[in-house]
Amino acid sequence: MLIRRHFRSEPRSSEITPREVYLARRNFMRGGLALGAGLLLPGLAHAQNGNGLSFSPGPFSTDEPKTPWEDVTTYNNFYELGTGKSDPSRNAEMLRTEPWSVVVDGACANPGRYALEDFLKPWALEERIYRLRCVEGWSMVIPWVGFELNQVLKQAEPAGSARYVAFETILDPENLSGQRRPVLQWPYTEGLRLDEAMHPLTILAVGLYGEELPNQNGAPLRLVVPWKYGFKSIKSIVRITLAEDEPPTAWNQAQPNEYGFYSNVNPEVAHPRWSQRTERRIGEFRRRRTEMFNGYGDEVADLYAGMDLKKFF
Ligand SMILES: Nc1nc2c(c(=O)[nH]1)N[C@H]1C(S)=C(S)[C@@H](COP(=O)(O)O)O[C@H]1N2
Ligand SMILES: [Mo]
């Protein structure tokens, strides 16, 4: 994806060094033409090296301080790349993202199989700075670059019978060593109700901090659903399926009493093994109170009007 940048927010100086190092290393591994410039020019030289994304500021962004690039890209959950927090960044090269294609299928009039470039071409990219709250009790603020999922779904022309959307991560056990162990049912799957998937907060992300997604964050394409626990935000998506029935989801299959289909962030509903009332923002020491719907209640509470959210957790 070689898209020139028109806009980027100025990184704080503390973020520049690790990102410069990261980009220089990635260009080196890709054999990129911009290797010399990436290594030799100081400051924001990488703006010219082709990895920056072109995007405009989007709605719903929080003005809370962003979690530093270093934490966002080295403290990860991506079990295909290992179960430790630092495994995904260390094992990032196990994920092969070229070539990549995305299938849109199921209960819709306009299904398709797209090369990644063609899948992305119609949609203008926006920055969305969202809170992400992991069910484990930590949270981050991440400046995603992506576009609303509802555009893709509308293009697919969902059938009247479609009520859910199912998502699938790449299955590649030869390269992804995590998929050679039965920690979860592979490929990783997730799902949303159709109205949740159509909500303007729900995005497909292709980047963060203005750069293409690092592999450990779910390159080349991942879901971001900010009012739900982090595991709903499935990484490295290869299939999006319109469905009539509630689809199976990886964590619900693994531990149905711990991880429900909805998994809305809810301080009132404890995980069976720990409370969900507080969280630690990565980089902070004192725990903070967890907000209903991760603070996005004004936007999404209506989706659940009349539902017992203790039952539908
Ligand atoms: N395919 C896949 N997607 C996944 C996961 C995973 O293990 N595999 N982990 C989930 C969990 S538990 C969280 S908290 C977020 C973490 O996203 P981040 O590493 O970009 O912060 O990704 C989610 N998406
Ligand atoms: Mo998570």
Summarize the structure in words.
This protein has helices at 13-30, 35-40, 69-74, 87-90, 116-120, 149-156, 194-198, 250-254, 297-300; strands at residues 56-57, 101-106, 112-115, 126-133, 138-148, 164-169, 189-193, 203-208, 211-212, 222-224, 237-243, 278-281, 288-289. The chain has 313 residues and is an alpha+beta fold. Strands 1, 4, 5, 8, 9, 10, 12 and 13 form an 8-stranded mixed β-sheet that branches. A 5-stranded mixed β-sheet has the order 3-2-11-6-7. β4 and β5 form a beta hairpin. The chain is globular, with a radius of gyration of 19 Å. It starts with 12 loop residues before the first helix and ends in a 13-residue tail after the last helix. The ligand Nc1nc2c(c(=O)[nH]1)N[C@H]1C(S)=C(S)[C@@H](COP(=O)(O)O)O[C@H]1N2 is lined by residues 76-80, 132, 134, 169, 188, 217-218, 230-231, 233-236.
